[in-house]
Specification:
Blueprint lengths: L1 E5 L8 H14 L4 E5 L5 H7 L7 E3 L5 H10 L4 E5 L6 H8 L3 E6 L3 H16 L4 E5 L12 H12 L13 H8 L4 H4 L4 H24 L19
Bound molecules: adenosine-5'-triphosphate (ATP) and magnesium ion (MG).
């Protein structure tokens, strides 16, 4: 079972949006998925309450995150996605500790970039692989990313923080599909939003595969070879 924790100290970075969109993407690809809403704001629970089939399964960690994860494991879950609050509360730290990989959404822009470092610090302390996902970026023009995005990327690279080579753009489709209790993968897999999420999911899946393979290689460094270069090293 793989655990993907969406974390960022910065409010509004896109944790809940990406948790729901990625979980629905994995579900649509035939995976057994559970989502854990570890944020008392309940954004993910609200989305889930609008879903007709009740899938992916949603749980809250009221009786402990480890217990929720143990149940998911028994049920044969392939992927657990954990949405967290924009804090460094114990439950967020536990969600990072339990992660196969931590995804840190960040909007391009100085305050968001600075906030990422706090989350990265926790992932590094817990020795968990992590990568930044640039979210709500200006739409590319002629396949060229905006200067703001290029600067953000350079900032992370300068700090040796792995960052996904793609971007999730600012698109109404990410919000409107969730408001309808659905997702980009379900409503518009061929739309720009649908294709961006599919690309992100594919990168995450391949990174997790690389992390898992490295884990079973004696002496293999788990932070090498990941598609996102998911890093552990300081
Ligand atoms: N790529 C995007 N395109 C358009 N809107 C987006 C995108 N990502 C996030 N948003 C919008 O930005 C707002 C904040 O996003 P979201 O709730 O996912 O952030 P969060 O990190 O979970 O916030 P919090 O820290 O409060 O939990 C929401 O209104 C969401 O619809
Ligand atoms: Mg949220």
């Amino acid at each position: 079972m793989n655990v993907i924790t969406l974390a960022s100290r910065k409010g509004g970075a896109g944790k809940s949006t990406l948790t729901a969109q990625l979980a629905a993407q994995a579900q649509a690809a035939g995976k057994r998925v559970t989502v854990i809403d570890a944020d008392p704001q309940g954004s993910l629970s609200l989305w889930h309450s609008l879903r007709k089939d009740g899938l992916p399964k949603l749980v809250t960690p009221e009786r402990g995150l480890d217990r929720a994860l143990a149940f998911a494991m028994i049920e044969g879950t392939d992927y657990v996605f954990i949405d967290t609050a924009p804090t460094m509360w114990v439950v967020v730290q536990e969600a990072i500790r339990a992660a196969t990989m931590v995804l840190i959404p960040a909007r391009p822009g100085f305050f968001d970039l600075a906030a990422v470092r706090e989350t990265v610090k926790v992932a590094r302390e817990r020795d968990r692989p992590y990568a930044v996902v640039i979210n709500a970026a200006p739409v590319k023009r002629d396949d060229k990313e905006a200067n703001l995005v290029a600067h953000s990327r350079a900032y992370f690279e300068g700090l040796q923080i792995p960052v996904w080579s793609g971007q999730i753009s600012q698109r109404a489709g990410f919000q409107s599909t969730l408001a309808a209790g659905a997702s980009a993968a379900e409503i518009g897999p061929a739309t720009a939003a649908g294709m961006e999420i599919a690309r992100l999911w594919s990168a995450v899946e391949r990174s997790i595969e690389a992390i898992n393979n490295a884990r079973f290689e004696p002496g293999g460094a788990a932070n090498e070879g990941g598609v996102m270069g998911a890093g552990r090293a300081a």
